[in-house]
Write a structure and sequence with these properties.
Elements: H1 2-8, H2 12-21, H3 27-30, H4 33-45, H5 47-64, H6 68-79, H7 82-102, E1 108-114, H8 125-135, H9 140-153, H10 174-196, E2 203-209, H11 219-227, E3 234-238, H12 245-259, E4 264-270, H13 283-291, E5 296-302, E6 313-322, H14 327-331, E7 333-337, E8 343-347, H15 351-370, H16 373-387, E9 406-409, H17 414-423, H18 432-441, H19 448-458, E10 467-474, E11 478-486
């Protein structure tokens, strides 16, 4: 009896396995929803192509059924309506000519260079604090405040400060500030000229931006004098425009390249620290001392079609947002004197909120230009449901990862990078270049986005067709974006600022 039972009864687990094997897999569990979203994005983005395919198929089928008599009749019809043919041809040629002449000229980024200061200008945490203490200008509360800012800043032990700040006491002067500007600008330009083999006389447009140091003659005049640029060069010197001035300079150069044919433009972005170190005890004005470091970049742009072959990137979009009409935004980054008459740059406690508002406005403008149609439709549908139908739905945040492959977020500070990573729903890999630039070079102001791009290239991550989003914030208050498309698999140029240390990155930064 027991033997029969053991022979006829199967374990329950066997029945369950057979039953499961007869079912389709649970796709909601086995399929990653991100792939569903990618499929939807592909379908909607190629909707026009998918609709045109059947139409083209019908036209081809109908054309294949034409016999020689039908083709002969069509020829006779055109032959005896010569005037109509000529008029249509003339209109077509005129329209094509107008289109070609009015179409914006492509702007190519041939190459760029970032300045790497000598190792003797590096400053470690303890050295920074020791020098700050020995100056005698800071009280105990200010010293402790600076120590806390440094520890939480995300800066590493290899950032650079000007030579004048290494002396005890510091020796800020007009001459020292000029020397800092010359070292940074000429250092980056020497690398750029060597890598591109362009002659200084071939440069038709020069744009220089530096917010806090604007001597006479100007910084742009210093470059013209140093490299003996031609007499009819169109030079511009942008001052007081903050850390986003690098994108503004690119936009100005782009506009100039639309007007002047067959020419090259050089954009130099830097900041000067020597005369802008704060020696007071106002907390909001001490933060720049802890974050800003020496750095600069030089970028070569061209509208020459022949330069496309050797160019790294093509400029796709520049979107600029200015919130200066609002008083709080205007004063959130403000150069002023404290109660003791000492000059510095004050950072408002509302800075992050104002930056968030500027970012929202900027991406609202940028989104329709770069986001796939699928993301725009989802955003529009959510907006309609919420505004018109009063549906209780969360606002849809577009996925900018579908529009961009690389993100160069201005390395203004750890908090800025953290907030953008959170609000744009980015992955740690997307903000790695920004975090590592802040760690290795500090806040180099308007040039930081180029150190970040150089990091991406040094890591070998830039592929043909990749899109790069450079986004920067600056006083005023401004939020500016530049979008680039890689024209080839981009390798790091000679004298890339990361070439001797890229193997050590990424590193774990202070959280």
């Amino acid at each position: 009896m027991s033997s029969e039972s053991s022979a006829t009864i199967r374990p329950p687990s066997s029945d369950v396995q057979i039953q499961q094997s007869r079912r389709l897999p649970d796709f909601l569990q086995s399929v990653n929803l991100k792939y569903v979203k990618l499929g939807y994005h592909y379908l909607v983005s190629h909707l026009l192509t998918l609709c045109l395919v059947p139409l083209m198929a019908v036209i081809i089928v109908e054309a294949s059924q034409l016999n020689p008599d039908d083709i002969h009749q069509l020829w006779l019809h055109l032959k005896y309506n010569l005037v109509s043919v000529i008029i249509c041809s003339a209109v077509l040629v005129f329209g094509c000519t107008v289109y070609v002449m009015s179409r914006p000229r492509s702007v190519f980024l041939v190459d760029y260079a970032c300045y790497k200061p000598p190792s003797k200008l590096q400053v470690k945490y303890e050295q920074f604090m020791e020098h700050s203490k020995l100056t005698g200008d800071f009280d105990d509360s200010s010293l402790e405040f600076q120590r806390k800012i440094l520890e939480r800043s995300g800066l590493g032990e290899e950032t650079y400060v000007p030579e004048a700040m290494h002396f005890i006491p510091p020796r800020p002067s007009m001459q020292a500030a000029r020397e800092e500007a010359e070292q940074v600008m000429f250092g980056s330009l020497d690398i750029l000229f060597a890598n591109t083999r362009i002659k200084p006389k071939d440069i038709g447009i020069l744009v220089v931006n530096c917010s806090l140091f604007n001597p006479t003659p100007s910084l742009s005049a210093m470059i013209v004098n140093k490299y003996k640029l031609r007499g009819n060069i169109r030079s511009f010197n942008l001052g007081g425009m903050g850390c986003s001035a690098g994108v503004i300079a690119i936009d100005l150069a782009k506009d100039m390249l639309q007007i002047h044919r067959n020419t090259c433009a050089v954009v130099v972005s830097t900041e000067n620290i020597t005369q802008n170190w704060y020696f007071g005890n106002k907390k909001s004005m001490l933060i720049p001392n802890c974050l800003f470091r020496v750095g600069g970049s030089a970028v070569l742009l061209s509208n020459k079609p022949k330069d496309r072959r050797r160019a790294k990137y093509k400029l796709v979009h520049v979107v600029r947002t200015h919130k200066g009409a609002d008083d709080k935004a205007f004063k959130c980054v403000y150069q002023e004197q404290d109660d003791n008459g000492k000059t510095g740059v004050s950072l408002s406690k509302d800075l992050m909120a104002i930056a968030g508002g500027a970012l929202k406005t900027n991406i609202t403008t940028l989104g329709p230009l770069v986001l796939p149609i699928s993301e725009q439709l989802l955003f529009f549908a959510t907006l309609v449901a919420k505004k018109l139908l009063n549906a209780k739905v969360k606002p849809y945040i577009p996925d900018f990862k579908l529009a961009f492959d690389h993100f160069c977020i201005h390395a203004g500070g750890r908090a800025v990078i953290d907030e953008l990573e959170k609000n744009l729903q980015l992955l740690p890999l997307h903000v790695e270049a920004s975090r590592m630039t802040l760690h290795r070079f500090g806040n180099t102001s308007s040039s930081s986005i180029w150190y970040e791009l150089a990091y991406t290239e040094a890591k070998g991550r830039m592929r043909k067709g990749n899109r790069v989003w450079q986004i920067a914030f600056g006083s005023g208050f401004k939020c500016n974006s530049a979008v680039w498309e890689a024209l080839r698999n981009v390798k790091p140029s000679t004298s890339n600022p990361w070439e001797d240390c890229i193997h050590r990155y990424p590193v774990q930064t202070v959280l």
